[in-house]
Design a protein that fits this description.
464 residues; alpha+beta; Rossmann fold; Archaeosine Trna-guanine Transglycosylase, Chain: A, domain 4; 14 helices; Ribosomal RNA small subunit methyltransferase F; SAM-dependent_MTases_sf; methyltransferase
Amino acid sequence: MFPEKFIIRMQEMLGEEYEAFYETLREERHQGLRINTLKAETEGFLKKAPFSLSPVPWTETGFYYEGTAQPGRHPLHEAGVYYIQEPSAMAPAAFADARPGERILDLCAAPGGKSTQLAAAMKGQGILVCNEIHPARARILSENIERMGIRNAVVTNETPERLAERFAGFFDKVLVDAPCSGEGMFRKNEEACGEWSPENVELCAERQDTILDSAAQMLQNGGRLVYSTCTFAPQENEGTISRFLKRYPAFSIVKLGKPECFSPGRPDWIPEPAPGIESTMRLWPHKLKGEGHFLAVLRKEGTLSDISSLPLRKDGNRRASEKECGEFLTFASQSLKGWQGGNYLFFGEQLYLLPPGMPSLKGLKVLRPGLHLGTMKKNRFEPSHALALALKPDEVCLSAELVSGEENKDYGPAFAWLNGETFPLTGEKGWYLITVDGYSIGWGKLAGGIMKNHYPKGLRKNWR
């Protein structure tokens, strides 16, 4: 089932613990989801969750669900109320301690679990840059940012080196969930098992060194760097951190309180351990309900400064004046309550709202420069699906609920909506925020007593 050289190495590392470790890898893995607090209050959601949940100890918003449940095939998933995420993978973003108003970079962000967790902690305030070097994975990342209703995120498809040229010393916090040999995911991903080799472990360690070099450049003095992998290999964990600290003496390992089920880093598994390496953390599948993970929290010496932004440059994607945004502002006055506005940016006919203080993105590969508001068409504005998912019913003038009641809920109308169906409604004509259980799921436009379905055709599903 597992590569022979991997087994031999793990036997040497774990000794008497190996049998318990090996037996765990033959068991069914634990399934988890994380409640999106940008949309739902944890306690409120738990009272009406359509499936049984139990808490993940290291994340307040993380929960296990039973293997028979299918939360990914539910309207509340499409509404971004929760994110399906492996339980151990919830730990790194939790230890980043993200706060509202900070400037945070998720450097290797796809598919978006950690980015969306950081965004929830930021509560829509500050700047979150989510980067992914692989184009296809960057698109998935962007889709998840949209689904979770995140307003203050920018999605880029760049190399770490290119970002470091643009964002030197800009971020308060940087999360590096580094590409790795994936040993901790062997029972989840058989492909990772088939691609494993000692040579690949070494290549991954070299790549991690390079990525961390860029991360160090982008962190301001006094900032926090969180490094994580989903592998057991010491070269990629304690080894990578020790090599980094040797190159960057301005950084040190932060000793933090951790759950009892987390294990300390192992200085005895690498040739030149850095001081304090035992304060890094290992998550072992035979010691907790989750896959294998490693994480380290580092601090850059100095004091955090209040950098409002880097110098703004004129760029090809021009900032839009309020006059140019006339059709959108008309829509906002007719359909939205208390719209605050901000810095608008055109990508062709697409209108975006930039996070306050965001520097120029000119020359970078950008998939999402902020919140996508919609499309400027001739003499009219059409709101985007992203805007709908970022709004709550009390932020719009008109809304329509597909599912209501506290018990024995019928989600049939919601499934029909996801399949693109319309429904009759008597009411004021115009744009309606469509909701499920009070959570926004898209736009509808009422005309002639029929609610036209504006759920994106590429997202429509027939699950019934």
